[in-house]
Write a structure and sequence with these properties.
The complex is a heterodimer of chains A (246) and B (299).
Chain A: H1 2-9, E1 23-32, E2 35-45, E3 50-54, H2 61-68, E4 76-81, E5 84-85, H3 91-98, E6 101-104, H4 116-120, H5 122-126, H6 131-144, H7 160-172, E7 178-182, H8 190-205, E8 209-213, H9 217-224, E9 230-235, E10 238-241
Parallel strand pairs in A: 3-8, 3-9, 6-7, 7-8
Antiparallel strand pairs in A: 1-2, 1-4, 4-5, 9-10
Helix pairs in contact in A: 1-6
Chain B: H1 3-11, H2 14-18, H3 24-60, E1 65-70, H4 77-89, E2 94-99, H5 102-113, E3 126-132, H6 139-149, E4 153-156, H7 159-201, H8 203-211, H9 216-247, H10 270-296
Antiparallel strand pairs in B: 1-3, 1-4, 2-3
Helix pairs in contact in B: 3-7, 3-9, 3-10, 4-6, 7-9, 7-10, 9-10
The chains are: A alpha/beta (246), B alpha+beta (299).
Chain lengths: 246, 299
């Protein structure tokens, strides 16, 4: 059902090269005025891969994710989105890339004056899609994330778990190539975090590239039984591939 | 921008319009400011028009005519008038000259003394109207010749008192135009402030829209359209009220004819139609600049 749903929505930009690297960081450094937060980061997100990004608070997980969707520009090295160097991208190019990268934040923000259903459909609206033709997909997606009954609620009325699921639904409605989630389970209980994880795994099985930043090792362990996930750890400003010792 | 684009812009995209939350009170402030500025603009335009008319009228109608006044003892008026007409007939730059008859002289005095004045019993001077042609005549030379041949004649070539009035009228017209520019600038400043506060109040909306892949132009349009339409509506209301006020201004009397009425005449009313679209254009440019500046600072 979900496969049908997401395929119907279709791609924003076609992936011309097939197995092209979606997001590539090459020797990237990032510093906030005060000093270097990240250095020597090299990473390739291949289509269909599943990555966890972990590390202590303040180690730069969110910064790394932001580099991956063009919200921040590297202060050193090179970041490419869909083969394009972010420094060479116009603001409109970044906007187009965002239509192919779904992002879920820990404190996800919505348009508080519009109901949940409209918020989830927002990416379709801003990209000029015909909403009527997408209404069946929207409704299926709402069912998939379990928000069917909350369709007319306003975002401030949602619980933490509902907000996360709404954000995930909004992130996937454009059928993006990659989904980046920043602590998606940070504000929800264990059961809800398992539910969100299952949704992410399902998306990965449909070929979506997933990267989840989390400090929740139990979540990573739970995921590893269902999906082949790589675990990246930020430590001393650098990115390491964590072993199987989790 | 072609017409269909403007129509699209005015019609808007209801979906896109909804992404920015409605704002009741800043909206009415913008409407009010636009209306007030348009109201003032109506008077600035009226002032420019009236002083423009004044300057034109005095500049063209009077520039081509002069007056010769003949004050002489009773028996000599006729002879001196004829002598003056002879002199004028041989002066280059004079197209025609004629002595005003009694009825005309009485009509000229009527505003000052009333209709029942027995003009014929008064020793009023005879007036000769001189119509100039081409570059006009040499006033100094004519004065000298008249002094020699017609001792009772005084040439009044109007420029002496006309020029400062024409200058003043032109200056007033310039001031009116400067006022219009100031009004446009103030409108732009107010709309920019309002747009900036709206953009600042909607940072979350803009962040969310950027996150889900909205282009800057899409986000800017949602704000620009609102402020442009508000300025258009506000200015239309202001122009309507200002126009009514000008329409009901007491009309200038015929007797005070040299003080043209401060209203609009004929096609000049059409200038009022121009004010709301101009306000909308100013608002469009101001909001777009504000939105672009704000968006540039967001990721």
């Amino acid at each position: 059902m979900i496969v049908a749903q997401l395929c119907l929505v279709g791609h924003v930009g076609t992936n011309e090269t097939g197995a092209q690297t979606l997001i590539e960081l090459d020797n990237v450094a990032y510093s906030y005025g005060g000093g270097e937060l990240l250095s020597d980061i090299s990473l390739k997100l291949q289509p269909g891969s599943f990555h966890f990004l972990t590390g202590p608070s303040g180690s730069g997980k969110t910064t790394l994710l932001k580099l991956c969707y063009g919200a921040l520009f590297p202060t050193g090295g090179q970041v490419s989105l869909f083969g394009q160097d972010v420094h060479a991208m116009e603001r409109d190019d970044i906007a187009m890339a965002r239509r192919r990268i779904g992002v879920v934040h820990q404190d996800c923000q919505f348009l508080d004056h519009m109901n949940v259903s409209d918020n989830i459909a927002l990416p379709l609206v801003v990209s000029g899609r015909d909403l009527l033709s997408q209404s069946a997909n929207l409704s299926e997606l709402m069912t998939w994330v379990g928000l069917k009954s909350r369709a007319n609620a306003l975002p401030p009325e949602l619980s933490g778990g509902e907000r996360q699921r709404a954000a995930l639904a909004r992130a996937v409605i454009m059928s993006p190539d990659a989904i980046l989630a920043d602590e998606p389970t940070g504000n929800v209980d264990w059961e809800m975090s398992q539910r969100l994880l299952r949704l992410l795994i399902e998306l990965n099985r449909m070929g979506k590239t997933i990267m989840v930043a989390t400090h929740d090792l139990a979540l990573i362990r739970a995921a590893k039984t269902h999906v082949q996930a790589r675990v990246l750890r930020i430590s001393n400003q650098r990115l390491q591939l964590a072993g199987a010792d989790l | 921008m072609d017409v269909s684009k403007i129509m699209d812009f005015v019609a808007g995209d209801t979906q896109a319009d909804r992404v920015v939350p409605p704002t009741g009170y800043t909206a009415s402030l913008t409407l009010f400011s636009a209306a007030a500025m348009a109201f003032l603009a109506v008077f600035a335009v009226a002032l420019s028009m009236a002083t423009g008319r004044l300057a034109d009228r005095w500049g063209s109608e009077l520039a081509q005519s002069s007056t010769i006044r003949i004050s002489a003892p009773d028996g000599q008026v006729q002879a001196q008038t004829e002598a003056a007409l002879r002199v004028l007939g041989t002066t280059s730059g004079v197209a025609s000259a004629r002595a005003l008859d009694e009825a005309e002289q009485r009509a000229l005095l009527e505003p000052w003394f009333g209709p029942d004045l027995p003009v014929e019993t008064l020793p009023i001077p005879q007036l000769i109207e001189v119509i100039e042609e081409g570059a006009g005549f040499d006033a100094e030379g004519l004065r000298l010749r008249l002094a020699a041949e017609v001792p009772g004649a005084v040439l009044d070539d109007h420029t002496r008192w006309r020029r400062p009035l024409v200058d003043a009228a032109s200056r007033l017209r310039t001031l009116g135009l400067v006022s219009l520019l100031l009004i446009a600038g103030t409108t732009a400043a107010m709309i920019t402030l309002a747009a900036n506060s709206a953009l600042a109040a909607n940072t979350q909306v803009i962040t969310v829209l950027r996150l889900v892949g909205a282009r800057d132009s899409y986000i800017a349009r949602a704000f620009v359209r609102r402020f442009t339409l508000r300025a258009l509506l506000g200015a239309a209301a202001g122009v309507f009220l200002g126009g009514l006020a000008v329409f009901f201004l007491p009309a200038a009397q015929e007797e005070g004819g040299f003080l043209t009425g401060l209203g609009f005449q004929g096609w000049q009313w059409l200038w009022l139609i121009v004010i709301p679209p101009l306000a909308a254009a100013v608002s469009f440019a101001a909001t777009r600049a504000a939105a672009r500046k704000t968006l540039k600072d967001l990721s």
